[in-house]
Amino acid sequence: MTITTTTPLQPTDRTTLRRSKERAATDREVLYDVLRAGMFCHLGVILNGDPVVLPTAYGLDLDQGPDGVIYLHGSVAARSVVAAPEQTICVTVTHTDGLVLARSAFHHSVNYRSAVIFGVPRLVADPDEKLHGLNRIVDHLVPGRSTATRPPSRKELAKTSVLALPLTEASVKTRDGAANDEEQDLGLPYWAGVIPLRVVAGEPVTNPDSDLLVPAHVRTRANLLGAPS
Amino acid sequence: MTITTTTPLQPTDRTTLRRSKERAATDREVLYDVLRAGMFCHLGVILNGDPVVLPTAYGLDLDQGPDGVIYLHGSVAARSVVAAPEQTICVTVTHTDGLVLARSAFHHSVNYRSAVIFGVPRLVADPDEKLHGLNRIVDHLVPGRSTATRPPSRKELAKTSVLALPLTEASVKTRDGAANDEEQDLGLPYWAGVIPLRVVAGEPVTNPDSDLLVPAHVRTRANLLGAPS
Predict the structure, then answer these.
(1) CB–CB contact A207 B192 (8 Å)
(2) How far apart are CA B213 and CA A190, in angstroms?
(3) What pLDDT is attached to residue A139?
(4) Preferred mutation among B113, B207, B220 to probe A, highest tally of A CBs within 10 A
(5) Where are stretches of biased composition, namely Low complexity (chains A, B) (predicted)?
(6) Which of A18, B2, B68, B73 could form a disulfide linkage to B167, CB 3.0–4.6 angstroms apart?
(7) What is the ipTM of this complex?
(8) Shared-domain flag, residues A122 and A212
């Protein structure tokens, strides 16, 4: 893994990894790479005293503020923020890159890249920033898409909730490579290795009510994700 | 989607979906299908008053208790449970099946299957159940693997944390199919459709320190996930 150092992340008690410190890559570029490569996050909020974890889409604006911003789409999140405006939320983006099978059950593991971001989000109220955030979310999923759709009407914008969270307090953990067995287990008659995993796109499926050809930005996105061509 | 009805899930205030009720499939078999098909979950706990969301592996024992049990591996979760034994946790398993591109930005969506489970977990202390739970986790990732490894030693078992959570309080949401546009947008010159997504396995990579052939259970798992053969 190539690491380019820029501003270091701000480690706090909560983002100082207690286990497997060697896997903690406190490097902002690694964080950005994990976030750029992901498509969805799992958002954690507290509702009525209990944790709630929901998947949602996100977008990035890495030029905003000192550390960049992640935009989140979602009414459940917005509801929790309205109920508790000063609440810290947690946003986790995970790539699972491989199943790591060791000779011992104990050393089974997973190759992964995972980013965890904490902070008090801002419910975006300004219509211009809301539109900006939504465009970032749509373009994160399919680059170029925001200019190839009908933009939201004022009414649609009002119905949509967008949160902004600065990428200030975050941690990244990664594991890659082969299985690590104990020296005394190396001769056991059990296979060790990795089953690589990845997310791929299939051939784009045009809506039954559309007779347009698949446009270049959709084709490019699918190909980037390894669609069969 | 074929739905086989067995015991209905127990909807509570928290698992009564407020948005998109039509997507709420309160059916236990759908829940089990989502859990069986998944490999990892995102676990939400409260640590020092804030939500923390972490990815982890899981296993299933659907024959245990009235509703079945999910086993979770992870020391961070265990730490939170030791700190607050009566704490409710949230376990979310998500499959993202496709990017849904509508003519309007507003109707962009995601095809997905997502299960959310709430409950007070039990920290598994009994070594026999701990071994059972770990075997379920390993076999969930790669069926048959638990009998093709060196089992954990007593010392390794003691170092490993396993949580058990009954599948009693849960909700499932799914979306599939084409993009749904407003009637008046159907003639707009924007493509609508779906980019399908799925997780696939690559060719298994044997460890550099192993000269064994890839065994059948590993080959089968990779093939099941659509590895190139």
Answers:
(1) yes
(2) 10
(3) 98
(4) B207
(5) 1-14
(6) B68
(7) 0.90
(8) no
